[in-house]
Design goal:
- The chain is mainly alpha-helical.
- Among the domains are: 136 residues, no CATH class; 204 residues.
- It has 13 helices and 4 strands.
- The protein has a 4-stranded antiparallel beta sheet.
- The longest helix is centred in the C-terminal third of the chain and has 114 residues.
- It is rod-shaped.
- The two termini are 46 Å apart.
Length: 521
């Protein structure tokens, strides 16, 4: 196996030695073409600016624009704004970019071309840093455009954050106003409902039940009291009737006694009258009627008769009045009081009955009111929770807006400003020349391989035996003449000189263009 490999290598070396002119020619031609391609391509310079994203040290609100966002999201959003047509047109007009292209191409194509020359990417080392780069043919303009893009990036960040904070505040205010209006309407409905059905609410059921039990007890107490007073009034009415009958009986008996001549108070008065008459009779037996004593007694008897008669009538009437006043009046007074109490208690009983009916209606309506109130409070609870949340969000958004206006929020800071590029990033001389050498070698190898395939001669006896199955008896080496040797040396010398001259010319050309800044390694 190793012998076969050595034979193959030997054949390749032999072919390369015999076809070395073709291979060297292809290499020189490829180098010349590569050098021309490099010189023809315009130089492209790139300038890079490093920015860092500094989180705000004061964050009083969760409504801050950078909350729950990453540096990639922020950079991606601002990159779209910075690379917008309006922004890039302003930079193109200010820096005077793409003058030749603007004569033949519309502004949309120029903006798109410039957008392709802008590259915004996060830092490879990680952290809140990223780079902005711009490529162009003029290094001075490249530096200015890169710095301009960095400055615009910072300005747009501040503007964007303030706009977002303003929009957030406006949104929270609108939402808060709308929810407050809905909440006020719902509170008005709930207030009216509670005022209308306050005693029928579920939270009043316990007190209503206790009050109903108390009223029922009070109603039963009034009922018992009325029955007792009714019985008392009946008894008093019976007593008054009995007293009236007794008085009438006494009066009747007194009249009968007077008619029958039985002694009475008037009779006792008569006893005094009899004494005066007896005395008058005694005096008349001794004196005449003109005697002063007799006249005086006659006057007394006459006066006594009148007084006794009047007294008898007065005493009878007084006695009857006193009896009636002392007994019947007291009983009638008590009965009137009892009647008044009965009337008062009946009135109170009716009032209590009305209240009992009212409380029973309130208690019966409590389940319905509870269901209706639950429906009202369920929606109210959601609105109240939403309102409280929006109040907090509105305060936070207001604080965030004030923070952004004072430029105390998260900001972009230029850590490494753009600098003048010392060498272009395109074209790469070493890369192009390396590719040219590879292409030349490949082209030379391809030509040599093609020529070998077209060549029908045999240079190896083993190949001849293998191909025609013939045994080679001997081989005669090539013995050139002196004239052929001399001609071969001349061609070899000329070829070597030619290839050396070409190589030197290429090297001198590279050195020349390098000194004049056309070639940059």
């Amino acid at each position: 196996m190793e012998t076969q490999q050595l034979e193959n290598i030997k054949q390749l070396v032999d072919v390369a030695g015999r076809r070395k002119a073709i291979i060297v020619s292809c290499l020189l031609i490829s180098i010349v073409i590569g050098l021309g391609a490099y010189l023809k391509q315009p130089k492209v310079y790139m300038s890079t600016c490093l920015l860092s994203y500094q989180q705000q040290s004061v964050n009083p609100a969760k409504m801050s624009p950078e909350i729950n966002t990453k540096i990639k999201d922020v950079v991606s959003t601002l990159a779209q704004i910075v690379s917008s047509r309006t922004s890039l047109e302003a930079i193109i007009n200010t820096e005077g970019l793409y003058k030749k292209e603007r004569e033949n191409l519309p502004m949309e194509d120029i903006v798109e071309a410039m957008r392709r020359n802008i590259d915004i990417f996060p830092s490879k080392v990680g952290g809140d840093t990223f780079s902005i780069s711009f490529t162009g043919s003029d290094p001075n303009k490249v530096v200015r455009v890169t710095n301009s893009l960095s400055s615009r990036f910072i300005e747009e960040n501040m503007k964007y954050r303030e706009e977002r904070a303003s929009e957030t505040l406006a949104y929270t205010k609108d939402e808060l106003s709308m929810v407050k209006e809905m909440l006020d309407k719902k509170e008005a409905v709930m207030r009216d409902y509670k005022l209308k059905y306050y005693n029928e609410m579920a939270d009043q059921r316990t007190s209503n039940t206790e009050r109903l039990i108390a009223l029922q007890t009070q109603y039963q107490s009034r009922q018992d009291s009325i029955q007792h007073l009714e019985q008392t009034r009946v008894l008093m009415r019976d007593q008054i009737t009995e007293k009236r009958q007794d008085l009438e009986n006494k009066k009747y008996n007194s009249d009968q006694m007077i008619l029958n001549g039985q002694p009475s108070q008037v009779g006792r008065g008569a006893e005094t009258l009899d004494q005066l008459q007896a005395e008058l009779q005694a005096l008349q037996e001794r004196y005449t009627d003109q005697h002063p004593r007799i006249k005086s007694l006659k006057k007394k008897i006459s006066s006594f008769n009148k007084t006794a008669l009047h007294k008898t009538e007065n005493e009878a009437s007084t006695e009857k009045g006193l009896q009636r006043t002392n007994v019947q009046f007291e009983l009638q007074k008590q009965m009137n009081e009892v009647s008044l109490n009965i009337e008062k208690m009946n009135k109170e009983r009716e009032e209590i009955k009305v209240l009992i009916k009212q409380y029973e209606q309130w208690i019966a309506a409590a389940p319905v009111r509870e269901a209706e109130w639950s429906a009202l409070t369920r929606e109210y609870g959601e609105l109240k929770h939403r309102y409280d949340f929006l109040v907090g969000q509105n305060l936070q958004a207001d604080s965030a807006l004030n923070l952004e206006r004072k430029q105390k929020g998260s900001q972009f800071k230029i850590e490494d400003p753009a600098r003048m590029p010392e060498k272009p990033i395109k074209p790469d001389f070493l890369k192009i020349m390396g590719i040219a050498l590879l292409v030349g070698c490949g082209l030379g190898a391809g030509l040599v391989f093609g020529l070998e395939l077209l060549d029908t001669s045999f240079r190896d006896p083993a190949k001849l035996e293998e191909t025609f199955n013939l045994e080679v008896i001997c081989s005669v080496p090539h013995l050139p003449l002196k004239r052929e040797i001399a001609r071969q040396r001349i061609w070899t010398t000329l070829g070597t000189a030619f290839f050396l001259a070409c190589g030197v010319a290429i090297v001198l050309a590279i050195v020349f263009f390098w000194k004049h800044g056309r070639i940059i390694f």
